[in-house]
Amino acid sequence: MKVQVQAKQLLYTGELVNGGEDGQLGETLRLEAGFSRVVVLKNAVAVGLGGTRRHTLLVIDGAEVLSIGIPDEEADSAAEATDAESRRQEAQRREANRPRS
User: CB-based burial of residue 12 (10 Å sphere; 0-12 exposed, 13-18 middle, 19+ buried)?
Assistant: First the structure.
């Protein structure tokens, strides 16, 4: 899942890593280095005052993470999918409740 992470003056966008070797790296750092929260992003893009930087694998110390969210374009498409599903269910409900002749 793609996410956006705000840390210090930078906004990072990338794929959230939860498992596997890369996810284990984050968990190891959290336990051994005492980070309160570790976010591991794959194929991340950092956007800040100095321009854009790309990272194949990025580990962000939880002490610096301000927020994590779904990028707008994904949130919009998820909302559209939910709306479409709601409309479909409503149409099915109306069809089921329509009097038969």
Answer: buried
pLDDT tens-digit series, residues 43-61? 778 776 666 777 676 666 6
Q: Is 71 buried (19+), middle (13-18) or exposed (0-12) by CB count in 10 A?
A: middle
> 10 Å Cβ neighbour count for 40?
23
Q: Where are the domains of the chain?
A: 2-70
| Cα 16 from chain centroid (whole Å) | 6
- Where are any strands of DSSP class E within the chain? 2-7, 10-16, 38-48, 51-61, 65-69
The number of residues making up the chain comes to 101
Per-residue pLDDT, averaged over 33-38, amounts to 67
Instruction: State the pTM of this model.
Output: 0.42
Q: What confidence score (pLDDT) does residue 85 get?
A: 72
pLDDT digit string, tens, across residues 68-92: 556 666 555 555 666 677 777 788 8
CATH 2.30.30.100 fits 2-70, yes or no: yes
